[in-house]
Amino acid sequence: MVCIRCQMVVKSELDKLGLEYTDVKIGEACIIGPVSDETLKKLDAALRKAGLQLMSNKKSILVEKITNAIIELVHYTEEQIKVNLSDYLSEKLCYDYTYLANLFSEVKGITIEKFYLKHKIEKVKELIVYDELNLSEIAYKMHYSSVAHLSNQFKKMTGLTPSHFKKLKNKRRDTLENV
């Protein structure tokens, strides 16, 4: 579950099944009380119809938590983290970063750093398309050290300069789920 719409779908399906819950966050739902296997199967089937998946495997859950932590950090948090990404994830998830990085790469086929950069560039694309901020403001907002650093990383990841990207009207952004 990587977006607010996904949270709404999960809440709706939990309500339909009469399951009580205390919280539905990106990637997690805290259900009150025991849930029968049959109810879990119904929930899983309903979530799959919506393009979501119920997870019970501990490694898959941890990878999903890494994914959600990065998405939250890039797309929903304004302030810059005070430590580097590896320390941030280790502290947030209470695991050694090497373990997290190896597990993530094994399951997703991409490094945590590359995944983080892809999301940063998607957010930059979004900000460019909205056309409310200039490139200097975007660089500052996205915590780049300079416009040059942002431009170089953008070009490396997309093959286009930010200004060329802005000129392409038919170039669509990817949804968060597809990044």
TrEMBL record:
InterPro entries: Homeodomain-like_sf, HTH_AraC. Residues 68-168 form the HTH araC/xylS-type domain. It comes from Carboxylicivirga mesophila. This is Helix-turn-helix transcriptional regulator. Coiled coil: none annotated. Keywords: DNA-binding, Transcription, Transcription regulation. It holds the Pfam family HTH_18. Signal peptide: none annotated.
